[in-house]
Write a structure and sequence with these properties.
The protein is mainly alpha-helical. It contains 6 helices and 2 strands, in the order H-H-H-E-E-H-H-H. The chain has a two-stranded antiparallel sheet. Strand 1 (55-58) and strand 2 (64-67) form a beta hairpin. The two termini are 33 Å apart.
């Protein structure tokens, strides 16, 4: 299964913003320190998130980033798409005539992994940032 660090870090950083401030901008430096993510890497991620209307940047000494929507309205699948990621369990594309093994026929387990990919992506389509915050709060209590 392929879900790279860019996707995971994007979710972590947005959950950080959502949990620390709903109205005040949060600096990437603060997120970097709290989540132990490289500042340079966060800048790359947030460039994509901003371009895809998930966050808005605020300039100035107290500047940083804020979420454009409520956490409950930001699906995890939308975050993945914003950073050019989608969970993949097979290397080939569904519409491709060639299979992931480079042959004309698909491997014997191809449909299994294809179904798993569908379930995983449906799961992320049903989950949002608000769910992460709620689950994290429930585990602390």
């Amino acid at each position: 299964m392929k879900l790279n660090t860019r996707s995971r870090y994007a979710v972590m950083a947005l959950a950080d913003i959502a949990s620390f401030s709903t109205q005040n901008p949060v600096s990437l430096r603060d997120i970097s320190l709290r989540q132990n993510i490289s500042l340079v890497y966060l800048e790359q991620i947030f460039s994509k998130l901003k371009k895809n209307n998930i966050v808005k940047s605020i300039r100035g000494t107290n500047g940083g980033y804020i979420l454009i929507k409520d956490p409950e309205k930001i699906k995890l699948s939308n975050i993945f798409l914003a950073v050019d990621e989608k969970v993949k369990t097979v290397q080939c594309k569904k519409e491709s005539k060639k299979a992931c093994n480079g042959k004309l026929t698909k491997c014997i387990t191809h449909n299994l992994w294809d179904d798993l990919e569908t379930h995983i992506n449906e799961f992320f389509d049903k989950k949002n940032l608000g769910d992460l915050l709620k689950n994290n709060l429930e585990k602390r209590i």
